[in-house]
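Minutes, methods subgroup
Present: GH (chair), OT, SY

1. OT presented the first of two proteins processed in the latest run. Sequence and C-alpha cells recorded below as shown on screen.
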Amino acid sequence: MSQLIYEFYSPKGIIKNKNISNSSRLVLKEAEKFGVDWNIISCTQIIELSFKGKKRTFYHQVPSTTSALAKYACNNKKVTTNLLYNNGISVPKGYRVRNSSSDKFLLSVYENLQKPLVVKPSDGALGENITLNIVDFDEYLDAVDYAIEYSGKQKASVIVEEMFKGTEYRILATREKVIGVLFRRPASILGNGLDSIKELIKKKNQDPIRALKSGTTSHLKIRMDDRMLRLLQKNAMDFSSIPPKGKRIFLRRLSNVSQGGDAIDFTDKVHQSVKDIALNAINAVPGLSFAGIDFLSTDITKKQTKNSYIIIEINDTPGFDIHDFPYEGKNRHAAREFLFLMFPELKQKS
C-alpha cells in the first residue's frame, strides 16, 4: 500500500497535508483482505468503509460506533476519572487547576495531596508536557506552567494527582473484549561496555520498526533533548557516558512509545481480574466502543485489589499498531478487531 496522505483546500487548490496514522493504514490493509472498499473523503481526515451496501466511517482511531459524549469524556481527563470513580474503579486522587487559578488555590492543592505528584495537561496526548515524581513546591509550579503550555488556550487547565508507584500498561479493549495488553518500557538503551549512550541511541534508532514520525511504523525514534540530558545528569551521566555491558539506562521517565519507548506484549501474563477491570472501565464511559486504557499495577500477574492498581487515563483514539507490531511479543491483530467493530459480519469470514 502506497503512502497515504490527507489533503486540504487552499487558494492554490488541493494540497497534501499529512500522513494518515500507521494504525489507520493497518485498518485499510485489513479492509482490503476482507473485500471492504475504502475512501478518504476529500479534504477531510475521515475514512469511509463500504461493505455490501453498508457504510461506516472512522477518524484516526475513532470508529463511528463511538459517540460524541464518549469523545468529550475522554478528552477531559477529570471527567474520565470521575466516571471511573463512580463505577468503583481505583483512580488517583487529584484536582484540576487552571491558568487563572490563584496562588492560594495552587498552594491548597499542593498541600492536600500526598507526594510525589504528577502534573499533566487535562487535554494532553502522547505523553507530552507531563512531569512525574514532583516533591518540591517550586518544581510543582514549574510543572503546572509546563503543562499549561501544551494547551495554549486562554482557559487552559491541568491535572495534579498523587503519583501511584506501580508498573504502567496499556490495555486495548472494546466493550466486549480485551484485545491486548502491553508493557510500555520507557525509552532506554542496553549498555555493551563499548559504545556511548549517544552511539547506543543512534544504533537503536536504526531498527526499521522505528521512524521519526508516525505513519509507517509502530515505534518512534528516541529523541535526544535537554530533558533527557537532565535525567542522565541526575544519575551522574551524560550522552558521552559508556554504560557497562548488560546495564539498561532509562532515558525518559514516561513510558510512552511516542517518546521512544518499547511496546512489549503482556496479554497472556495478566490476571483475569485485570481484564475484568478494563471492561468495567470502558463500559463506565457512555458510548465508548474502542479505547486504550492506561493501567498501573503493583503486580499485573496477580488478582487486583482496590489498592494494587489504578487507571490513570482512557484514550478514545489509541494507536493500536503497537499491538500488531510490538517491540517484543505476539501480533494481537488489533486492526482486524477495529474493522470487526464496524462490520461484525466479517468475523464469519475470518
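2. SY then presented the second protein from the same run.
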Amino acid sequence: MTDVSVGKGGPATPIEPSLHRVMGPWLLLLFIVGDILGTGIYALTGQVAKQVGGVVWLPFLVAFIVALMTAFSYLELVTKYPRAAGAALYTHRAFGIHFVTFIVAFAVMCSGITSASTASRAFAANLSNAFNLSLAGGIGITLVGLAFMALVAIVNFRGVGESVKANVVLTCVELTGLLIIIVIGLWAIGLGQGDVSRVMQFKTATDGSMIWPVIAATTLAFFAMVGFEDSVNMAEETEDPTRTFPKILLLGLFITGLIYVLVSISAITLVSPEQLGEGETPLLKVVQAGAPNFPVEIFGFITMFAVANSALINMLMASRLVYGMSRERVLPAILGKVHPTRRTPYIAIGFTTLLAFALITFVGEVPALGGTTALLLLCVFTVVNVAVLILRKDPVKHAHFRTPTFLPVLGAICCAFLVGPWTGRDPVQYKIAGVLLGVGILLWVVTVLVNRATGLEPAEPEMGDIGGPGPRN
C-alpha cells in the first residue's frame, strides 16, 4: 500500500503519485456519463417494457435509486483511499481473504464478458435492421456477433488503450443517439401523436400484483445503470479527488437517470409495449415511428458505435483483470504472458474472447446476457456496501466523504434482494453466472495446487494492481 501525506488543510496526496492528475471536474463528468450510457438502454428498453408494460420508466428509476445508494459507498471508499482501485481491492482491504478477493475480481471480469457479449448481439441486430441486411434469423445474428467479437479481440491485441479525449468523443456520440430519441418523443407529444396515457399503464402479474413485475424488470434495467463504479479507477488522474468525486459522481448519475427516464417515456409514447419488446433494436422502432423521414441508417450507425465502444472497453477490462490476477498468482501463470512485440496480454485476451464466443453461441439472447451482467454486479455491490461499513474501523489521517450509515445498509439489502430468485429473474442467468464462476474457481484451485507444489503463495495485492477499469454497459 502506498503511504500518503496530508497537506495543510488539504486532502491526502500520494508520496509518489504514479499518474498525472489531468482530469478536472468536466472531464470526469463526461467520463462517468459516457461510462454509464451504452448497450443497456439501447438494447434492453423493449425487454423491460415487455415485463412491466407502459411504466417502462419505473424500473429504470428504481435501478437508479439502488445504484445511487451504492454510489455513496464508492464515494466514501474512493475519497478515503484516493488510488486507482476497484471492488476487489476494497474487498481485500475489508476482509483480507484472498479467495473472497479473487471471487469478487473474477465476478467483475465475468460481468465485463457478459456485457460485451450483450453488446455484440445488439451490434449485429442493429446492423441487420438499420441497413436491411436480412440476416438469417438467430444464426445470422450469432455469426455477425462472433465476427464482431473477433474484431474486438484483434483491436484489443494491438494494444488500444483508453484515453480521455477518445472517451469525450464516444460519449458525445452515445449521448446524441439518446437525445435524438428524447427530441423525437417530445416533438411527437407536442403534435398530439402517440399515446401518452401508456406511461402509467402497468402490466400486472398473474396474481394481479403490480410490484413483482416492476422488481423483475428492475433486475434487467439495472444493467443500464452500471458503469459509475468505473470512475474510482480515475482517482489518481483526477484533480483533488476527495473534493471532486462526490459532486461529480452524483451529478453524472442524476444526468443519466434523467436521460433514461425521458428516453423510456418517449419510447413508450410512440411504440406499444408489445411492439417495443419484439426483437433486439427497440430504439430503432421509436425513430421509425416518431420520425419516419429520419434516416434510420444514421441512428443505426450511432447505436452500433455506442455498443461497439461498450464491447471494446469491457473486453479490455476483462483481459487486463485476468492478466492482473495471474500476476497476483491467483490464476495460472500462463494467463499473465505478454506478447513480446505488441506488449499486450495475448493469452488473457484469447481466454476472455473464447468465453465471449461461448456466450454468444450457446446463450445468445440479449436479456439473458444483460441480466447476468446485472446479477454479477449486484453481488459485487452487496459486498462493497458491506465493506464500507467494515472499513469504518480503518481510519485515515485526511478528511474524506462519509456516507450516512443507513445508505450502505439499505444498499446492501436492496442489492442482495435483487439477486434472489424471488424477483422473477430468469433462472438461466444463475446458470450462466454459475458456469463462469465455476471456471474461475477451477482455475483458482489448480493455481493453488501448483503454487503449493512450487512453494509460492498468492501475492499481497497492491492498490491498483488488479483493480482495472470496471465494466461498462
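Chair's summary of item 2: Residues 106 and 440 are 7 Å apart (CA to CA).
Next meeting: continue with the remaining queue.
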